[in-house]
Amino acid sequence: MKIAPHHVPGTPEHKFSQMLRPDQVYQPRHAWPSDCTVQWGHGIVPATPFFEAFVPGTFIRGEGATIADAETRAFEKYEGEKLCGHQWGRQRPGGLLYTNGAGWCRKCGGFRSEMFRPIVTLGHHRKPLRLMELHHLESVESDHEMNARMDAKYPDRKADRASYARLLRIRLNLYGVADQS
Ligand SMILES: [Zn+2]
Prior knowledge:
Elements lengths: L1 E2 L8 H9 L16 E6 L6 E6 L5 E4 L3 H17 L4 E2 L13 E3 L5 E2 L18 H12 L1 H10 L4 H18 L6
Parallel strand pairs: 1-2
Antiparallel strand pairs: 2-3, 3-4, 5-6, 6-7
Helix pairs in contact: 3-5
């Protein structure tokens, strides 16, 4: 298990994190695999204690009354996932159909970032941005507070959000903005 650098005194990440809010001193208690990075803290709104584990290819989050409870919740999910005979689909349970290759298990709700090949429509991205897309890109590129809020609220969407913003930036550079008149 690797501890995320913002929890490790002496690192620049820890120094920066301390300026935002004092770090929650905590020592993980469960046997996470060695190639997994963990972090913990309290959510922004509401201030729910959480524990997150970034296992290669997936992401597990637990919440609880304390960080220790949150870790136990996350570890149970991790252990439970190993026992599940996963049934992967592109549909997020109770949510959208993902075409970017992400998969969710229909039985345990487990997540894998690259379970399928992305579904693409050829030529789909070769067009100017609509105003709505331009405004979205501007806020992602300039509103760091919003990004931090979104990342805290939807940590499992962080990579998707970043790649979507990258795509919008490329389309803007190549094709500009559509004439809305
Ligand atoms: Zn499963």
